[in-house]
């Protein structure tokens, strides 16, 4: 059956307004879905962030740092002289390690696996006057020297290392060995 042109014309405007309403409703629904998805994702991302922080308390962008007893430790894979090691630690907003107790000594000794590493202790400014890089009082602080050390052998040993047995030893600051940096946990 054929409808006159006037009759068809009556239905077209109604169809256009109905489709416009449908498009508006679809757009609003789409926006609501996006907003709801964003809310759910933001709650999930904070949980995800908490999980990452528990896995990497020293920061997710610094996975090479190890966490122990409220601090972060970096064990280098590059061998350098003592002054370069000190500078590398400072560049990473940390300092050469100051070992404060037997528990920390045990942790560092286990992590160094029998290798030699610089620690933040030297007497290069004043022979026989050992100083920690953070100004911790050497006289009253923890010590773990090998027997007979420090001995300033050949008058050329002004920097401290953790030696292969885990004990401390004084050696020439120009010896190239690994190093340990330490910093507080990020806040």
TrEMBL record:
Residues 68-182 form the C-type lectin domain. One of its GO terms (cellular component) is extracellular region. CDD domains: CLECT_DC-SIGN_like (cd03590). One of its GO terms (molecular function) is carbohydrate binding. It is found in: Secreted. Keywords: Disulfide bond, Lectin, Membrane, Secreted, Transmembrane, Transmembrane helix. Pfam families: Lectin_C (PF00059). The chain crosses the membrane at residues 21-41. InterPro entries: C-type_lectin-like, C-type_lectin-like/link_sf, C-type_lectin/snaclec_domain, C-type_lectin_CS, CD209-like_CTLD, CTDL_fold. This is Hepatic lectin-like. It comes from Pantherophis guttatus (Corn snake). The lineage of its organism: Eukaryota, Metazoa, Chordata, Craniata, Vertebrata.
């Amino acid at each position: 059956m054929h409808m006159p042109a006037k009759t068809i014309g009556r239905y077209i405007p109604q169809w256009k307004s109905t489709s416009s309403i449908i498009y508006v409703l679809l757009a609003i629904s789409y926006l609501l879905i996006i907003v709801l998805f964003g809310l759910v994702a933001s709650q999930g991302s904070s949980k995800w962030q908490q999980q990452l922080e528990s896995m990497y308390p020293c920061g997710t962008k610094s996975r090479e740092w190890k966490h122990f007893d409220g601090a972060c430790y970096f064990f280098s894979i590059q061998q350098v002289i003592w002054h370069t090691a000190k500078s590398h630690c400072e560049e990473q907003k940390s300092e050469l390690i100051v070992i404060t107790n037997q528990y920390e000594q045990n942790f560092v000794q286990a992590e160094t696996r029998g290798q030699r590493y610089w620690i933040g202790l030297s007497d290069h400014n004043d022979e026989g006057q050992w100083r920690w890089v953070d100004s911790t009082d050497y006289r009253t602080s923890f010590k773990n020297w090998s027997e007979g050390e420090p001995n300033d052998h050949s008058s050329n040993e002004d920097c401290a290392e953790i030696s292969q047995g885990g004990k401390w030893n004084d050696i020439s600051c120009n010896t190239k060995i690994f190093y340990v940096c330490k910093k507080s946990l990020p806040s």
